Amino acid sequence: MANPHVISEAEELTRFGLSMIVNEPARLGDWLSELGGQLGDVAMLDEPKKEEGEEGEDGMVERLLDIIVRVMPRHIPVTSILLEHYDGYSMRTKMAIKAKIIEPILAIGQVSTELLAVLGSAPTRADELVAWIVRLLVSDAHPSRALRQTILDREARNGAGSAAISWMVVTAVDRHQIEAAMIDALGALNRLDQLPDMIRSMLCWLKRDLDISADDVLFMAINGTTRPNAKRMGKVIDQFILLPDIFDRSIIQDALTRAYRTNNPSILLMRVTMQVMRAYPEMLDVCLDLVGALILQPVWDTPQFEAGFVRFVKMCQPRSLKLLHRLGKAHKHALLEANPDLKAALRSGTRFS
């Protein structure tokens, strides 16, 4: 069994070396020689020392990663070293890290309490690698209860970031559960200013691994929200609509159309429709057609739908007043009696096309 003191020193040296990749790459050559001497048989280093100038920066990074992955299965805490400076690495280094740690991570497995402790304490700047490791751990096995709890606890401490992707993976086994987990993750946001980065990270993974698009995400958020988290999700969707680089008008229109065509309006549907109208007044005709078709369906028992419909008509008059004529006579009469301002608008003879 290796000397714990030697391992501790090796971890410190390795941590320092990974910071050097970011901050002082020119010093990596000398540092690697020192690390090799400290690790000794722990890393099973049998490579001959290369002459000065023979090894470039990429080669030194490769040697460093080789040392870490050799140590990792038996001395799991060194994994934390990879996470500590991950956000500062080049894309090439990040790809090399992922390629090299596949085997040791799978060998360690999700039953390791040491690995779960490392993932749970990883800084938020390492969210991308945390999410990647979690996906790797559950690639050929159902997530353990301990892994699920580790990710949920990390979310509770750090607030939702791209690690919400990990949450979705460990809580979901099919598309329906991914939808529910995504809504929970968005609804749990501590700060809405985290949303743009979070949604960009989510969409990157969702599209690549599950073919879930921005249109799908917006539709899920509109259609899958229930009363307990409606207020929070309403604010989240408001922010979606204000991110035209992610949710442009065509994506918003497609998602909204899908939500209406379910003929089962969610608690947020009319609220989102009005928010879309504020952001894109030119979509009035689209929204009038969607609302007009929906009110002919048996939707009036849906909680808050009638109140939302009335607000929409008031907001978009005079052209929206024509929707009132699509209602049954008794329904129209009751609605106008409850809303004398709309009754007056109809009586005024306002023309609308």
TrEMBL record:
Pfam families: Symplekin_C (PF12295). GO terms for cellular component: mRNA cleavage and polyadenylation specificity factor complex. Residues 172-335 form the Symplekin C-terminal domain. InterPro entries: Symplekin/Pta1, Symplekin_C. This is Symplekin C-terminal domain-containing protein. It comes from Syncephalis pseudoplumigaleata.
